[in-house]
């Protein structure tokens, strides 16, 4: 197995374990791409202010995706599993 295949399979395994990581990455790149595209029509806004707004928006999306991921994981581990342990006759 090549190094590329190992990295790809590792990424897919991590994405299955934590599904909001790829969502956060995609949102980050979408926001950065949009703000870079919008850079040409920024008007009188200084470049540094535009870049700070882009960084804050991208980081906010990533933090939001991580928060939703943690809440989802806590729900899955503490609420969904105990119900399945109480009712072993039901399947997922």
TrEMBL record:
Main location: mitochondrion
GO cellular component terms, A-Z: mitochondrial membrane
Transmembrane intervals: 20-37, 57-75
Gene Ontology biological-process annotations: mitochondrial respirasome assembly
Subcellular location: Mitochondrion membrane
Swiss-Prot/TrEMBL keywords: Membrane, Mitochondrion, Transmembrane, Transmembrane helix
Residue span(s) of domain HIG1: 1-84
InterPro entries (UniProt xref): Hypoxia_induced_domain, RCF1
The protein's name in its UniProt record: HIG1 hypoxia inducible domain family member 1A
């Amino acid at each position: 197995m090549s190094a590329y295949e190992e990295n790809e399979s590792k990424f897919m395994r991590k994405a299955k374990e934590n599904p909001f990581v790829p969502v956060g990455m995609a949102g980050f790149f979408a926001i950065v791409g949009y703000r870079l595209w919008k850079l040409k029509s920024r008007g009188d806004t200084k470049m540094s202010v535009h870049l700070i707004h882009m960084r804050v928006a991208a980081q906010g999306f990533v933090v939001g995706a991580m928060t939703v991921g943690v809440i989802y994981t806590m729900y899955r581990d503490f609420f969904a599993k105990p119900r399945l342990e109480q009712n072993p006759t039901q399947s997922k």
